[in-house]
Amino acid sequence: MIKFHVVNGEILPAEQASLNITDLGLLRGYGIFDYFQMKNGKPFFMDDHLRRFYRSAEKMQLDVGYDFEALKEQIYRLIEANGTDTCGIRLVLTGGYAIDGFTPVSSNLVILQHPFKVWDEKIFTEGINLITHEYVRSMPEVKTTNYYTVILLIPEMKAADALDVLYYNSDGWISETSRSNFFIIDEEGKLITAVDKILHGITRGHTLAVAKDILPIEERNIHLSELKTASEAFVTSTTKGIVPVVKVGSDIIGNGKPGPLTQKLMEALRLRRE
Ligand SMILES: Cc1ncc(COP(=O)(O)O)c(C=O)c1O
Question: d(Cα 37, Cα 18) in Å, to the nearest integer?
Answer without folding.
Answer: 22
